[in-house]
Amino acid sequence: MRAIALAALLCFAGPVFADDDFAIEDRQALRAEIRAYLLENPEILREAMAALEAKEALAQVSADKRAISANASALFDDGFSYV
Fold first, then answer.
1. What is the pTM of this model?
2. 79 Cβ partners below 8 Å, 6+ apart?
């Protein structure tokens, strides 16, 4: 859960930092805190990468299924193959 929370924080940190109400000192403190946390817990980066790879693999499977469905007649009913 921490890896997901940290990944979400990192993904949405840009819009937070763009807020004019967010003081420069607060931005620097947050960045320092994130950096320190990642340095103390580097395995979180590996967990985040594994989660990203799993998500990308699921997306690829979905894209493959769509491609097969879209080309099912050409793949399975070519008129020449013995079934």
1. 0.55
2. none
Task: DSSP for the chain, please give it.
Answer: -HHHHHHHHHHHHHHHHH-TTS-HHHHHHHHHHHHHHHHH-THHHHHHHHHHHHHHHHHHHHHHHHHHHHTHHHHH--SSS--
Q: How far apart are the first and last CA of the chain?
A: 49
By C-alpha distance, which of 39, 37, 28, 35 is closest to 2?
37
What is the per-residue pLDDT across 12-57, written as a single tens digit (0 to 9) for each?
A: 665 555 556 779 999 999 999 999 999 999 999 999 999 999 999 9
